[in-house]
Amino acid sequence: MKYITNNFFAKFMSLVLAFCFWIFVTAVDMRLGFFPKDVSVDVKNIQTGLAVAEDPGNVKIKIKAPMSVYSKLNSDNFDVFVDASAIKSGGAEHVDIKVISKDPSVQILGTEPQNVLLKLEDEETKKIPIVLKTKGDPSGDYRSGEGEVKTKDVEVLGAPSKIKQINEVAAFVELKGNEKGNIDGEVPVIAFDETDNPIRFLKFNPEKTPVYLPILPKVESKTVGIKVKLKGETAKGYWVNKVRIDPPIVAIKGELEKIKNIEFVETAEIDLANSNKNIMDRVKLTLPDKVTLVENLDKVSVQIFVADLDSAKTVTPSINFKKANPKLKAEILTMTAVTLTGSQASLTPITSENVILNIDLSSYQVAGEHKIQVSKDMVIKPGDVEVSKVLPEIITVKLTEIQETLAQ
């Protein structure tokens, strides 16, 4: 007991000072004031058959929170609403604003204003056509194509004064800047006014709708071969022995959907005009709509070699890729020609369909352009004809990865 009573006053003052210091430290660590952003007011517990006619607006929230928490707060941390359960019919009535903090360390001290005038009307329903609406852009090298909404119209439920504000009802797709594949799924239905702002306090049936929005590369390029387009016939007893093009390939560019299936482009027509002599010409290329050349190439040089039917025949062979990697698509970028010799009777039935050039890809298992040497023994041909030559002796084969389409 004497130990406790000795220097009692000094001990008591130490406790008081410690308590005051604790209060000071606690106060320094807390921040009191209005949350810097106004928060929108929601309406809960509306009676069936009634709807909000006018937005209750935004409020300022006075809070007390630890400094470490205060700096991380945002509007989503607060549930701000008015309770409409006591309102049984349409009209206007003042109701108190209620705020619930989702973080228990944040104290709600009040709001400004403390109440709002809540206006309700009898709910009505209206059927309105739906459109597709997007916001933002996909990944940098991509663009959104023409989309499709799989629902024609929706039922809109709300106050008549709200429904009158509707400029359009949309299936809304918000692009976040990282999309590289097509969007195929359900998105929310939202109504917009004339200033393109969303209209609150409306209900929709359905609330979500399926949409399809293609996400396409802005520009894609690829290398393709050139095919000479001929019209007319050579002179009797003569045929087109060989065709030479310079350059033999070109690079084209355009939207992926436009160029993905293009393997060659054609020249303008060249008239054989009953010729029995070789033809040399410079002709333009014929390109599909919205497809252009990577380089500014005006014309290509074409040589058409005309030969006597009794001597030889040159055809463009069919290509058969053997032992190819199933994950790679193969295409030949060099126009090949196989010259066969034999009697006129044996050469007559020879066509590109029955002359086949076998190309073994077992040594080429990665994507890219590969130079491959060809020879006469790689050619399969019918009848009693002989393979005289295969030109060019080195061809270019392009291997590309087969892309799988992903639905999102």
Provide a brief overview of the structure.
With 408 residues, the protein is mostly beta strands. It is 10% helix and 49% strand.
3D architecture notes:
With 408 residues, the chain is mainly β. It has four domains: 28-121, RNA Polymerase Alpha Subunit, Chain A, domain 2 (Beta Complex), CATH 2.170.120.30; 124-217, RNA Polymerase Alpha Subunit, Chain A, domain 2 (Beta Complex); 219-309, RNA Polymerase Alpha Subunit, Chain A, domain 2 (Beta Complex), CATH 2.170.120; 310-408, RNA Polymerase Alpha Subunit, Chain A, domain 2 (Beta Complex). 10% of the residues lie in helices and 49% in strands. It contains six helices and 38 strands. A seven-stranded mixed sheet has the order 13-18-16-15-11-14-17. A five-stranded mixed sheet has the order 27-24-20-23-28. Strands 1, 2, 5 and 9 form a four-stranded antiparallel sheet that branches. The longest helix is centred in the first third of the chain and has 21 residues, at 8-28. The protein starts with a helix and ends in a 7-residue tail after the last strand. The relative contact order is 0.09. The mean pLDDT is 89. Pfam families: YbbR. It comes from candidate division CPR2 bacterium GW2011_GWC1_41_48. This is YbbR family protein.
Distinctive features:
408 residues, mainly beta, RNA Polymerase Alpha Subunit, Chain A, domain 2, 4 domains, seven-stranded mixed sheet, YbbR
